[in-house]
């Protein structure tokens, strides 16, 4: 795929591509369309050598739609759409598990844009896994079972514990009042591609409706384990100025913690999404 000097190079046959030959601060409509098409095809795309400020990052991401305000920020009366994720000796990395962002709200984000600001000399990679490929691993019988199941999503005890320690118990109470548990399909239909994806989200999944806890934990554990298949993954080794853009509706991701205690600082913003749905 080429548009002027823009090139798209697949990183595997399942997921991931690198885009070269474009400056995200001087993007024309044809180049943006090419990036969007590559994102929908490869699920996560990477660009190197981009010098983005918080404002230029937000302007680029905003071409997909309104930017999300994190629920914790909303409860604090803030409207910021840019999150700084910073790992230090005093603040160890805390996202080294497979997940999709903020699935515990009715309309989770649909696209994320992450910028590499301060990169450690070793470690600190991020990985993505294809939820399309995970769905395709299911037998026809298992797929038929999963396609009719609904899952309760919630922030989870660990999220509430960490957030409560930082911001206090009242904020957790406000979150619970404004963002109670939500129900999403276990298999979701992508709103753009129409493809089916296994909608697992790590610790944000609480329980399958209609199953007891033991049954639900067993099935969700098996399904979440499909994300570990290395043939369905891509891993990115960061440099300063790198940008990763991913489709939240068809991927899980995790930020590895092997750089600790080295310093790592990233900037992330997400684009508002719609309510997940399943359509046969």
TrEMBL record:
Keywords: Dioxygenase, Iron, Metal-binding, Oxidoreductase. SUPFAM superfamilies: Clavaminate synthase-like. GO terms for molecular function: 2-oxoglutarate-dependent dioxygenase activity; metal ion binding. GO terms for cellular component: cytoplasm. Transmembrane segments: none annotated. It holds the Pfam family TauD. Residues 8-270 form the TauD/TfdA-like domain. Belongs to the TfdA dioxygenase family. This is Unannotated protein. It comes from freshwater metagenome. The lineage of its organism: unclassified sequences, metagenomes, ecological metagenomes.
């Amino acid at each position: 795929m080429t548009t002027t000097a823009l090139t798209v190079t697949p990183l595997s046959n399942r997921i991931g591509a690198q885009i070269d030959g474009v400056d995200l601060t001087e993007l024309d409509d044809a180049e943006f369309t090419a990036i969007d098409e590559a994102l929908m095809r490869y699920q996560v795309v990477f660009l190197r050598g981009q010098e983005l400020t918080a404002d230029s990052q937000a302007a680029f991401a905003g071409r997909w739609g309104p930017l999300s305000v994190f629920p914790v920020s909303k409860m604090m009366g803030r409207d910021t759409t840019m999150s700084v994720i910073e790992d230090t000796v005093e603040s160890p990395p805390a996202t080294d598990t497979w997940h999709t962002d903020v699935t515990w709200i009715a309309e989770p984000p649909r696209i994320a844009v992450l910028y590499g600001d301060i990169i450690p000399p070793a470690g600190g990679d991020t990985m993505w896994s294809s939820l399309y490929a995970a769905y395709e691993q299911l037998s026809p019988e298992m797929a038929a079972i999963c396609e009719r199941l609904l899952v309760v999503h919630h922030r989870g005890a660990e999220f509430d514990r960490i957030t409560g320690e930082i911001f206090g118990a009242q904020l957790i109470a406000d979150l619970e009042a404004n963002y109670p548990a939500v129900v999403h399909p276990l298999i979701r239909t992508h709103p753009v591609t129409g493809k089916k994806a296994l909608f697992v989200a790590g610790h944000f999944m609480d329980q399958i409706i209609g199953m007891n806890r033991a049954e639900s934990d067993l099935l969700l554990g098996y399904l979440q384990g499909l994300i570990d298949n290395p043939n369905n993954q891509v891993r990115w080794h960061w440099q300063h100025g790198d940008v990763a853009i991913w489709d939240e509706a068809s991927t899980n991701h995790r930020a590895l913690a092997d750089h600790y205690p080295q310093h790592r600082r990233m900037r992330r913003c997400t684009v508002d999404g719609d309510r997940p749905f399943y359509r046969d």
